[in-house]
Structure formats: structure tokens, C-alpha cells
Amino acid sequence: MKILSLEHEGYRNLSPGTVYPDAGINVICGYNAQGKTNLLEALWLFTGAHSFRGAKDGELTAFSKESGEKQAFSRLNLTFLSGGREQEAQITIRGGRRSLRLNGVDKRSCGALAGVFCAVIFSPEHLSLVKDGPANRRNFLDGALCQLHPAYVKTVNQYNRILMQRNALLKDIVRHRELIDTIDIWDERLASFGAQIISERLRYVEKLLPRAKNAYSGISSGREVLDLVYRSGISCADSSYEALRACLREKLHASMKDDIRMGSTSCGPHRDDLDLLIGGISARSFGSQGQQRSAVLALKLSETDLLGEACGEEPVILLDDVLSELDESRQDYLLNHLKGRQVFITCCSPEHTRLLNRGKIFSILQGRVSQQTV
Ligand SMILES: Nc1ncnc2c1ncn2[C@@H]1O[C@H](COP(=O)(O)OP(=O)(O)OP(=O)(O)O)[C@@H](O)[C@H]1O
Ligand SMILES: [Mg+2]
Q1: Any idea which of 20-34, 56-70, 129-143 has the lowest mean pLDDT?
Q2: Which domains does the chain possess?
Q3: Residue 37: CB within 6 Å of ligand 1?
Q4: Distance, CA 95 to ligand 1 centroid (Å)?
């Protein structure tokens, strides 16, 4: 997967223009608030997903800071190599609605881009993956699995629906004890979907681990070791689906009294976590800022590997503001050792571009993008 050009007009604060990136590393350098993240966001939209900043489509269309007046539309045109041929996608945002034209054909939704163009984004918000609670890490695993196996979305939705129903029942049982006999039916179903989720996550972590270890070793020049451990509330010697289902079923039964008292379900994949360990100790509790950033990067890069293997194309890597807090050898790894992939990496200081061996540097000032000589 390689981006050949991005033409942009009326998008956020970006002045109309066309960017012709390098097939390898592209550094986008500029002071704060000049439009670096806006440029990455424009590229990201071609994955078919929503803005990684959670912005609504209407907010993407440029407005004038002086008059507040809004442009009638935004238009982004991407040419890229995918599936062994050159392709062209055009996204238009008008009246807060997004439309897509792919290789000259109007499509009903931007979802048509899924699998045609793929990218992975790392932005400072992703640091919550290591810094915050387990929900972020479960979302990371589930998000990655949904991209790999669309059927997984259904399993997660069904599990969540049954979980809500079981929790509602737990609260009802306090007033209507006779309902206790009906909980078995929900436990049976919850165990069956829950075991599917746990077994998919375990398999994913198993594949992720060697790649994440390798990426982390590269980032830290072999000085530190990263480990990933999936922590499940159910202890099960065997990780087959049947064994997990039986263990979860048993645990649900054993914790029923406590669950009724609490009014919620205390075990299952919605309570699991993914531990990130650096040198055997928790990155969340003890990692330095640079180590935490490196661990998230390693996770993101290994997610990229697995996505690339599944879709037969190396996804484009978008790295927003990763270089700060990393020492020179870690910066060097990102700038010079991500071979064979197209990378866009933003930074605030021209100092960071000093380490770049090959690639293109773009500077961005008040939304105007210009290419520098390396
Ligand atoms: N729809 C819009 N129209 C016009 N300007 C916008 C729009 N949306 C955002 N902006 C402006 O774009 C500017 C640049 O935003 P961006 O987040 O890309 O900056 P950045 O270069 O990544 O800065 P930082 O280094 O602080 O992350 C902001 O000052 C913001 O006000
Ligand atoms: Mg930014």
C-alpha cells in the first residue's frame, strides 16, 4: 500500500494543494497548530473510518478564522497503489455528509474503502492504552479483531446484549427470588459468546507477542524486553473454546451470589485485561514516559504487521507526534528502520528531521504544506 498523492481543498485549515509523498518515510514538521494532525487525519479518512479525533464530518470542512464563514465543501483526492494497481479515491464532504467516488464510480458509503486502503494511526491519545484502565486495552484487542474478522463484531455485540440482560436480571432477583431459576439460560449463552471472545483474543495476543517483542527490541536497541500477558478472570489450564466455555460457565455459577449482591457480572471477557510488561514489570505502574510511548508504538507496529499479513498489503503508518519524549536511538529506529512501509510522521522541531537518512520532509505553516530538501 503506497500513497502516490493527496490533493486537498477546503479541508480544516489546509490551504488547497497537492502532496506527493515518498514511498518510504515522510516527516511533516511544523510548529503547534499549523495543520500537521489535520493532514494525517485527511489521509486516515481513506480507511473509511471516522476521524481518529472523534470529529463529526461537518467539523472537517474549512471555516475562516476571521469571518467564521464556512466553505461549501471539502474535497480530498487520493491516488494510491493497492492490489497491484493504481487506484483513485475521492472523498467529498458537503453539508456535513461524506460521499465517496472510488476509481470513477460513486459508492453508497465510505465503508467501500475497507480493505481497499488500509492504515494504522498512532496519536498521543493512544498512550491511554498503557496509562489508563483495562477497557482501553480490551478495546484495542477488539478493534484489531474486528478489522481482521468482521464476524467478531457480531459476537461482541451479542455478548454485550446478553450481559446487559443478565445484569438486569441480577437486580430483579433481589425483589423476585423466583427468577433465580432463569439465570442458567443466560449463563449458558454468556459463557458460549464469552468463550468465543476470550479464545479469539488469546489467539490474537499469541500472534501479536513475537511481533511486539521484536518491534520493542528494535525501538529500545535491544536494551529492554516487552511482554504481553492476557489476564482473564477465569483460570483455565486449556485455552480451547470448549474448555474456556466450561470454565466461564462454572465461574458464573460460582459467583452468582456475589453478582446478585452487586447487581453486576463479575467475570467474563468484559473484565479481562492485557498486561504490558517491560523487563517483567508493569509498564502502566512503573514505565517511564519514553518506555510507555515505546510500548504503545510496539503494539501499534505489531498490529500493523498482522493487518498487513491478513490483507496482503502493508498498511500505511501514520504517527502523530511520537518523536517527543523519545531519545535519539528510539527516534532513529522510527525514522530509519521501518523498512518497506510508507510512514507519515509529524514533529514540531526541525531538530528531529536531522536524523532522517532517506525520505521526504514537508514543512507546514498556517496550513500551507511545502516540501523541503533532505
Ligand atoms: N474546520 C476547520 N477550519 C479551519 N481551521 C480549522 C478547522 N479545524 C481545525 N482548524 C484549525 O487547524 C489548526 C491546526 O490544527 P492541527 O491539530 O492540525 O495542528 P498541529 O499542527 O497538529 O498542532 P500540534 O503540534 O499542536 O499538534 C488549529 O489551530 C485549528 O484551529
Ligand atoms: Mg497535532
Answers
A1: 56-70
A2: 2-118+316-372 (3.40.50.300), 130-285 (1.20.1050.90)
A3: yes
A4: 20
